[in-house]
Amino acid sequence: MNRIVLPLASFAFLLSAWWFLSTLDQFSAVLPSPVTVATTMRDDLDLYPSNAAITVSTAAQGFVWGNAIAIGLVVMTMPFRRLQALVERVAVGAVALPLIAVAPVLAIAFQGNTPGVILAAQAVIFPTTVAAILGLRSVDRASVEIALAAGGSQWTAIRKVRIPAAIPQLVAGLQIAAPSAILGAIIGEYMGGTQGLGVAMIQAQGTFDVPRVWGLAIVTTVIAAAAYAGIPLLARLLLPWSRVPLTVLGARADHTANRGWHLVPVRLGAALVTTAVGVLVMWWVAVQLIPGGEYVARGPGDVLPYLTSESTQLITAADATEGSALDHLLSNLGRTIFDASIGFGIGLVAAVLAAVLAFQWVFIERILMPVSIALRSVPIVAAMPLLAIVFGRGLLAITVLVTIMTFFPTLVNLLLAMRSVPQSATDVFAAAGAGRLMRLRKLYLPYSLPALLASVKIALPLSIGAAMVAEWLATGQGLGAAMTVAATVSDYNFVWAGVVVVLFTSLIAYHIAAQLEQQALKRLS
């Protein structure tokens, strides 16, 4: 009974809060009452099926392609750790590419719904890659050694042992990726589509039809929530044998190389050098492959001299910066990093606390998860204007958005990890008379540490991207706003420079998180 009553109670609370805010004068212009939105949705019933079908089709194509690429690359490179590390960096690069810069380029280079498919695939590659790697490494090491001792090869161990054990973590990754795929499809439609929910949303915003915008946002949220809830059900239907406990201690066994803290700067420096070279190579290749590249593409040979020149006169809503393009780029990048870091920290702490409470008391999860899914599934392009009205066009609005983006994947991963503690370990603590707090501190949190660190690696690039979207839509400050202005005036040198610097910054953050992960897992092994 509680499985139904508590989620309904959480939705009733949201509905009540919505109704109350809509009665306030300062929100009435952008937040119509639930009754008004429901009436509009009833009148617009003919609008939803055709547009939703286009968006779902685009998102599904990107979801399938992105996940197939991510899972295929992770499985194929599992025996080769250095090659798999390169795959991780490429995945980070995929999610770190700012949508506000990539989407217009794709809209120019490709026709139809292809930009939306690409953006949806881009959005899912990274979370699925991280989840697949974590899952494949989270098998008990003894099981792998038994498979090898019985005469099996590394590929046999992957197929017979690692893949079945990775299913729970992989399902969690696919759940996180599903709303991202729908968001990517809508951004593609928003930037240059001809049909779909994103296009309908643009048309409604253009005519200031606020109730219709909210109706479309609700439809999008319902679709994303249905995808999130349907993935584990589909996994249980297709893979009923896959309910294998996720032994996170096995992940520690896979990270037991004898490496100390004194080598961290050396490894980090080497990783950054190879990453810089890789970024330059991928940049050059991308420029060669983009259709119509002579108009929108700018390679290293074009951008690097431009950065040292004083030819940029870009003006944002906050300031007018003269001087070199590099000065303008770095000052705006610093603002974006600052904007992202606050929301990231708050979202991470809130997710850990929420996961602990939800694990200890199931009713909290049943109240919290529907709200979390709803908040994460609302398209940013629809939610950000409301956040700007409610919280102002400054740091607070960005912090709220980044917190939402960070909170959801971290909560999902931590809950899964704590529930995947082997029953044998739980029995040992119970036999020793350990209380709830002791088990949480000594058992569940240490077991969930790999999932937490994996969530940090996922959330860092996402927080930078979310901050840039907020700057684009609301604040008019930071790199997100500057790149939007540059794209508007066709200053593609600055756009490409922004893409590269965001990519490199995200990779640096990812490498730091990865080094912390290795050291933490080593200490726990």
Summarize the structure.
The protein is an all-alpha fold and 525 residues long.
How would you describe this protein?
This protein is mostly helical and 525 residues long. The protein has one domain: MetI-like (MetI-like fold, Orthogonal Bundle). Helix content is 81%, strand content 0%. The chain has 22 helices and no strands. It has helices at residues 2-22, 34-43, 48-76, 81-96, 99-109, 114-137, 141-149, 154-192, 197-206, 210-238, 248-253, 264-289, 293-296, 300-307, 325-360, 362-377, 380-391, 395-419, 423-431, 436-475, 478-488, 492-524. The radius of gyration is 23 Å and the shape is globular. Residues 244-259 and 315-321 have low confidence and may be disordered.
Number of helices: 22
Radius of gyration: 23 Å
Span from first to last CA? 41 Å
Shape: globular
What is the class in the CATH system?
Mainly Alpha
Question: Do you know the CATH topology?
Answer: MetI-like fold
Report on the biggest sheet: none
